[in-house]
Amino acid sequence: MANLLQKITGGLKAEKPIKLYGHGGGPNPWKVEVILRELGLPFDRQIMDFADLKKEPFESINPNGRVPAIEDPNTGMKLWESGAIIEYLLETYDSSNSLSYTSGAEKWEQKCWLHFQMSGQGPYFGQRAWFTLYHSEKNLTSCLDRYGNEIRRVISVIDAHLKSTGREYLVGDKCTYADLSFATWHWLLTSPPNIMGEGFAKEWEENYPLAWKWNERMQARAAVKEARDERTKVISGK
Amino acid sequence: MASDSDIHLYTAQTPNGIKISILLEELGLPYQTTKLEFSKSTQKEPWFLEINPNGRIPAITDKFTDGKPIRLFESGSIMQYLVARYDKDHKFSFPPGSREFLEMNNWLFFMNAGVGPMQGQANHFTRYAPEHIEYGVNRYQNETRRLYGVLDKHLADTKAEYLVGNKCTIADISHWGWVSAAGWAGVNLDDFPHLKKWEERMWARPALKKGANVPDPYKLKELLQDKEKMDRHAAEARNWVQQGMKEDAEKNAARSK
Ligand SMILES: N[C@@H](CCC(=O)N[C@@H](CS)C(=O)NCC(=O)O)C(=O)O
Ligand SMILES: N[C@@H](CCC(=O)N[C@@H](CS)C(=O)NCC(=O)O)C(=O)O
């Protein structure tokens, strides 16, 4: 019970490293790694083969057979779905509220954007990646266009929001987990595999300038840079 | 305290919209409803974008604890908000920080990042796409089936009546509108016996039935029995879906000029 109360107030200290199940290419596990790094939590990353995800023992950790998933020896919890993991990490460990608002309307506004990322950005960016990387030979132009337009629409929603609030971040006046949840999918747009084509960075900067600057601000953060460098290492096998 | 609230639901007769009216009915909360007309692109009008910058339903406004108005968009965060504020006895949720609370959240995100978007794509390629793309139909129907398989196995393994902690929570409510519409996406629920029983169990709940009939009568179950009606319904939806796709494409092109 004491444990439970500490968790609610976000005061728990992570003594033992949190196990993060990840993968080199997919941006979703790296999203969690960014948050772990931002919060300065100890963690062990285990890179998984996709072939091992949809069977035991991994299915007992995530019945959906996907990464990310975490096991936290400090609380005995197993979690999956990056959005749920992020909420858990914040609620359990962000004692100084460095990355979140824990009360007021901002608390809920953050969650709206996190859910928008989870259901609006991730799945659609993922579909574009699929049709670009695995099905380019089939030349499924209408599918590529469908998801390409959705990527532009998602970025335009953020651009319009930043314009109407006149702020630098999605919620309040600081960078929160809601912003950071978008950062790792953007890697696929601005560097190889450039799922929107090589000219897209320029299109983004010109057409959605506020969202572009917002992304630049996030990408300049140490935690985001470190996670990105780690990913490059994992992908290149170094 | 319900008297200090002023919930207004912006919705349409869709799987994401009815999640919220069902939860409101289950919680017994008073609320007003505004129906958005997709055929008239009401969801893209400036007044609504102030409530949901993403231009989708569902969204709600409420009087917040500080007495000021608050807006919420995305069905997932709306459900989290409603139980955090109004489900003090944890009838449809669990105490924050508890094991069951976290498990419930896993499934809520599984719905919103998995079942919803993937079944939505299956609907698109099966019912609304301007041209028939067999690859798209198969890809998304298969992924929807895979996700249903995960739900079915979970219900079988836990031998429970609901997804988490053996009571009906927002994890279940968020799934119901989609699972009950499986046939619309070309997925046969008979292939998932535990999930099918769960769907029937949910449908037997009076508050769920009431919430499913907001803002228009819930006719999907009849519709799925009648091929001709299904085709007519798809043709109507196809118009606004394709219109929306065209407008988005044009907006993008105009920016690039
Ligand atoms: N909604 C999930 C998506 C997770 C997801 O799709 N992960 C990919 C990697 S980015 C994966 O595990 N793919 C393996 C597979 O599809 O078998 C989340 O955000 O955690
Ligand atoms: N992730 C969102 C999805 C919302 C959504 O896609 N809503 C659809 C109806 S089910 C909509 O408003 N469509 C209108 C449009 O696309 O213009 C949620 O769960 O709230």
TrEMBL record, chain A:
Residues annotated as domain GST N-terminal: 16-97
PANTHER family in alphabetical order: GLUTATHIONE S-TRANSFERASE-RELATED (PTHR44051), TRANSCRIPTIONAL REGULATOR URE2 (PTHR44051:SF3)
Name recorded for this polypeptide: Glutathione S-transferase
Top-level taxon: Eukaryota
Family statement: Belongs to the GST superfamily.
Organism: Salinomyces thailandicus
Domain GST C-terminal: 103-238
TrEMBL record, chain B:
SUPFAM superfamilies to which the protein is assigned, alphabetical: GST C-terminal domain-like, Thioredoxin-like
Domain (GST C-terminal): residue spans on this chain: 97-230
Superkingdom of the source species: Eukaryota
Annotated signal sequence range: none
InterPro entries attached to this UniProt entry: Glutathione-S-Trfase_C-like (IPR010987), Glutathione-S-Trfase_C_sf (IPR036282), Glutathione_S-Trfase (IPR040079), Glutathione_S-Trfase_N (IPR004045), GST_C (IPR004046), Thioredoxin-like_sf (IPR036249)
Residues covered by the GST N-terminal domain: 4-90
CDD domains: GST_C_YfcG_like (cd10291), GST_N_Ure2p_like (cd03048)
Protein family per UniProt: Belongs to the GST superfamily.
Protein name: Glutathione S-transferase
